[in-house]
Design a protein that fits this description.
Layout: H1 2-13, E1 24-33, E2 44-49, E3 56-60, E4 66-72, E5 74-81, E6 88-95, E7 99-106, H2 110-121, E8 124-127, E9 132-135, H3 147-151, E10 157-159, E11 165-167, E12 173-177, E13 201-207, E14 221-227, E15 234-245, E16 248-258, E17 262-274, E18 277-285, E19 288-289, E20 295-296, E21 302-325, E22 330-355, E23 357-384, E24 391-416, E25 427-448, E26 452-474, E27 481-483, E28 489-508, E29 511-530, H4 534-541, E30 548-565, E31 574-585, H5 589-592, E32 603-605, E33 614-626, E34 630-642, E35 645-655, E36 661-669, E37 672-687, E38 690-704, E39 706-707, E40 710-711, E41 714-729, E42 733-742, E43 745-746, E44 750-752, E45 755-766, E46 771-778, E47 786-791, E48 795-802, E49 807-816
Parallel strand pairs: 1-7, 12-14, 32-36
Antiparallel strand pairs: 1-4, 2-3, 2-5, 5-6, 8-9, 9-13, 10-11, 13-14, 15-16, 15-49, 16-17, 17-21, 18-21, 18-48, 19-20, 21-22, 22-23, 23-24, 24-25, 25-26, 26-27, 26-28, 28-29, 29-30, 30-31, 31-33, 33-34, 34-37, 35-36, 37-38, 38-41, 39-40, 41-42, 42-45, 43-44, 44-47, 45-46, 46-49, 47-48
Subcellular location: Cell outer membrane
Protein name: TonB-dependent receptor
Pfam families: CarbopepD_reg_2, OMP_b-brl_3, Plug
Length: 839
Amino acid sequence: MTKKILTSFILLFTTLIFAQNEKEITVKGKIVDASTQTPLEYATIVFTSTTDASDVTGGITDTKGNYNIKVAAGTYNISYEYIGFKKLTINNKSITSNTNLGTTSLSVDAETLDEIEIVAEKTTVDIRLDKKIYNIGKDLTTAGGTVSDALNNVPSVSVDIEGGISLRGNENVRILINGKPSALAGFGDSNVLSQLPAEAIERVEVITSPSARYDAEGTAGILNIILRQKETLGFNGSINLNAGNPDLVGVATTLNYRTEKFNLFSNIGFRYFDAPRTSDSDTYYFDYLDEDGILQTPEYRQIIEDQDVTRLNRNYNGNIGMEYFLSDKTSLTGSFFYRYGEDADLSTNISERYNGGLVEQTTRYERQNEEDNSYQFALNYITKFDDNGHQLTADFQYVIDKEEQFTFLDENYDFTEDANPEPFQREQIYQTEDQKEYLVQADYVLPIGEDSRFEAGYRGSFQNEVTDYLLEQENITDGSLFVNDTITNVFDYSENVNALYTQYGTKLGKFSFLLGLRLEHTQLKGKIDSRLSDQELNDAFSFPIDTDFDKNYLGLFPTVNLIYNLAKEDQKEESITLGYNRRINRPRGWFINPFPTRSSRTRVFQGNPNLDPAFSSTFDLGYLKRWDKLTLTTSVYYQHETDSFERVQENTGSVTTDGINIIRTIPVNLSTNKRTGAELGVLFNPEKWLRLNSSINFFQFNTEGEFNGVDYSAKNTSWFARFSSKVTLPAKIDWQTNAFYRGARSDAQSDTDGIFSMDLAFSKEIFKDKATLSLNVRDVFNSRKRNSVTTTATERVTSEFQWRQRQITLSMIYRFNQKKDRNRGSRNNNYNGDDEFEG
């Protein structure tokens, strides 16, 4: 079976060079499906000389099933092959003149198709020296969904209700696309992944113990998303249509044209959706002592807020590129990616204020329009010096992103007992963010013997972000607008990283290891251009800040990955892995910009330019056991992080015009964070028609540290689990159920309840398996809501937050000049990761 597929793929990707004879003869014909008489596109025809087995000539059919091949006069064994069909061979065919072999019919090989389908339908996991590779297969619940939806079904990974991605409960995870930072993953903003279709994913690599090849960023580890790309010769592609409720309309197309010298590929999509969001909060205010020790009584004892947000999003994205084969072992790939996003959000916040009874009600309106343009240019060069893995790759990437945002804020009284209330100011905010990033990378791989490999490389990443923020407020006396000098600013922030690495891996019997060392120099540089003086800025933000900083860090990041194969030769895979790595967490621009947000008068987020990078050391011990129908994976881990980032809430000491305390959330380096955990995953395929997949993660963290004289130390234990089942029903209907539960968790200030959600999906192949129709419901019970209680020295806030409501989606994907997904090949997009060294 394997030999058949391998032979077919080799013939599809390589036009055989035929020996010239004194007389060339043209052989024509056509190949069709015996049952339907439809042409078989890109079927292979092989002519093998009966006198010299090494004399092989061949070709493939066009989109109409026709072939036209030149051969030398002689006698041949002619074979006809197509994946999923029975091979047909005609022996001792004499060809002495131009010949038309007519129409040849191939019959479906049911046994082969079943074997192929079983392999592709499984959600498999491969354990490598530094990663787990999840071939996510055909996940019905993500049909019409996004990359974020697909990631939420990967073991060890969870996506919270706000779109934040965490690995083993740790949010500091690095997102890569095809092994590199990419505009497709955004500039540290994982919400961008909610704009990309899930169907684009080939596999997800969960790298909890990254080798030295990878950037040291991300204390939790790395999620490397490998995108699909077709390899079939000729022209092929697919069209994906989606519609749903709340309003969702999407179309995406993948087109590919491949010859022996080049491969043209493109992915183009449009997505419009309404993502309504709701939140409710009940805040109770305590009496408190101010800085002078005087007891203060709040203006209001209780405030209840009810917020509804309508979010209309229009997203366009396109990727086009060409891979050119300079020789059999050398290729150059260039690609261009563009994304345009247009958002229109309308927020209505009704606020009720109590002192015993209701004394005031207001409605606050926030209208925000945003446009986002992203461009990415990428070049990749690869040359293979031999077939044993000796190769050199070089990459260059340039990314431009520009975001323009306009926000209008207005608040009015619906009811008040105050005879002469202070009117609210209208506000207008103009904000632009210009971001640029250069990436230069080179990697060299040298095999040493059959079981060893040496690697070395360089990566330079240079990012710059300029945020221009202008706040205009209303002059109550005449209604005109004036610039607020205390908030308006320009923040110029750069992050430059230069890195060198080397690593060596070898296999010694059943034992393998991969040792690496990475040297990184990090420069964090920022300048705040404000109309306020440095002293005025310090007074305004209640803590001293550096308005022009240039911080440099030089670090060594060792990695150790070990694997021991326990299985005997006649057994399935069984292995133990042990990993150690040191990582860094660099603060992003919005974590450093000290100017507060304005979406709420009473609650603001404020960056901290005094933030330093956090460093972590992690140990990971894993075990894998694979039986015929069952795969078991488990691991335990320990992480010690210094200067870890934590967000704390505190009273600024300022109040609004109507006497409400202003509370800010600010990130700080909160000393140490110790995290321990364990995870268990089970994949079970008892029958061809049934697939079961479950995993559970248990973790505990212990944070120690204080800020502004307040101790924020906390100890918390939490867990999350998921279960998935897929059943094949009669009439070729597939039914999939996904369930997820995240346990309750706590930190120094907040207690959050557990969250349960469940997804359902059904699909059916139509149009002779050329199309798939899917219906899915995400969050069936509309239960994906975060309920929490936050307590500080001045208040207690009870809140409920829902980022996205239940979504019902109808999706259809139509494939042309392709077989069903189970027969589809994929490329690695020139990504050459450590998965080549299995040990």
